Amino acid sequence: MDPFSATNPTDQKFKDLDLSDQAIENIEFMSCHFQNCKFVGSTFRHLSFEDCTFEKCDLSLLKCPQTRFKQVRFKSCRLMGINWSAADWEQKSLLKYPAVDFEDCLLDHSVFLGLSLKSTSFAGCKARSLDFESTNLTQADFHNADLAGTRFAHCDLTEANFSGASNYQINASENTLHKTRFSLPEAVALLHGLDIILED
To answer: How many CA atoms lie within 13 A of 127 on its CB side?
Structure first.
């Protein structure tokens, strides 16, 4: 039985689905809630998610070519190994509100190259070995995130919040830092890469 029998589901709840390694195409989801669903290794192609929530879902190794996210919230989800750069990022909408937010998620080994992620939340996430290159992270929230091995290169981190974040390595000379919030002692990591001598 096709769980998405409706042409464009609106205000529907989907629970305990297992559609791992399957291709899902050409559907628009509006104000839908996904709970305890598995999409491991699946392909979302030409999908649209607007004002949707994924809670306790596993979307690891998801492929999302030409898929659009608009005000989508991921809560306590597994989202490892995803190339988010392959999605369809509608620039006009991103000027008004974030396309995605992550809360207490597992995001390890994912890619966000060149994206505009202004005001996006990564709060409480395990966000290890991510790749942020040429990414707009203005006002992004990394509060209490674990950023071990994550790469920040040529990013705009203006007014981003790293308070309570841990294990990050940010080269201050390669990224834009303006009114960016950090907390001690983790902020000492900002000194790495600078041509200075630090003594006890």
So the answer is: 29
